[in-house]
From TrEMBL:
The lineage of its organism: Eukaryota, Metazoa, Ecdysozoa, Nematoda, Chromadorea. Residues 13-60, 100-160, 227-296, 330-365 form the Gelsolin-like domain. The keyword Repeat applies. It comes from Caenorhabditis japonica. It comes from the Eukaryota. This is Gelsolin-like domain-containing protein. One of its GO terms (biological process) is actin polymerization or depolymerization. GO terms for cellular component: actin cytoskeleton; cytoplasm. Transmembrane segments: none annotated. Pfam families: Gelsolin (PF00626). Keywords: Repeat. SUPFAM superfamilies: Actin depolymerizing proteins. GO terms for molecular function: actin filament binding; phosphatidylinositol-4,5-bisphosphate binding.
Amino acid sequence: MPNYVQKYEGCWDVHFWLGQNASTDEVGVAAIKTVEIDDSLGGLPTQHREIQNHESPLFLSYFTDGIRYVSGGYESGYHHVEDQFKNWKPHLFHCKGKRNVRSSEVECDVKSLNLGDVFILDLGKDIYVWMPPDSGRLERIKGMARAKNIADVERLGASTVHILDDVEWNNDPTFWSYFGGVSAVKQVKKGQDDDDNYWKRLTEQITLWKVSDASGAAKVTLVAQGEDLRKDQLDSNDAFILDALNGGIFVWIGKGCTLEERSKALIWGENYLKQHHLPRWTQVTRVLESAESTQFTQWFRDWVDEKKKNVFEPLLFQVSDESGLLRVEQIANFTQEDLDGDDVMILDALNLIYVWVGANATHREEGSVEHGEKYL
């Protein structure tokens, strides 16, 4: 459960990441370390609570080759080159995602494979990247980059990478020997689209709550909902929780709050999740007064930042229609290389909304006007 600190011009972002099998003690240690980091930086950072398989676009943007999840504790990250291949146990990694590709370890069995995603079979000295015909272009690129990183960086060049593409994906004898032989390819199931749909729910469901901790147990009181949210409803002497549904939970801390109250922000956020029976993986972010991000301020119609009112950061979204399910995913820290020829991209440039259609986009994805109207 590592903590990750990223500094941008004029601000800090502190992320603490929780694995799906993290113990209660480990979660507690991560929270303590986050507070220590926060104190060392003067209580100024924006804090982000990240959960495995549900990380924020900002967190994912730091890992240009994609994230790889491994089994075991911190010891699993330390190996000696001279003995690392002794008694090696094969590992199979599933690379999944349209833009933010994650690779998580799965059971090394034919039932783990599917025809829609990329898989990495790690045999120690040899690493196989299995790319069936229905796998996505970006998943292939990220899968190959991930395998190369393992071989060149983690193994110091001691491993060889083998690419099984459209020609060799169903007939390589070494790869299939770990899954019951080449004939096992007939057992591989079709790809399933289980990625999240990033379209925001109706604005009317967004809620703002005031946090009260006077009795020692945090309680929340509804302040406003939907289009009634206004900046002047936030009091500098108090803390508030903004429930943005698919956009996550934000705990806003006023300038008049004590250091102790600042340190409790993420705890209040987690308590809110429990009280409202929300999924544990819901994003929780602490924001400080006068250091609010656009991800927070966008829910307040009258919000104008005097320091930034002439500055607008464009937003880029990817629209895909994989397996018939229309999905929209935000791309953080984007560059021109993020334009995917297989999909449609939406660029929010404040006064103009651009809809970019890739050459290989499907007919449904090419409904560009409809996508732009839905975004608005």
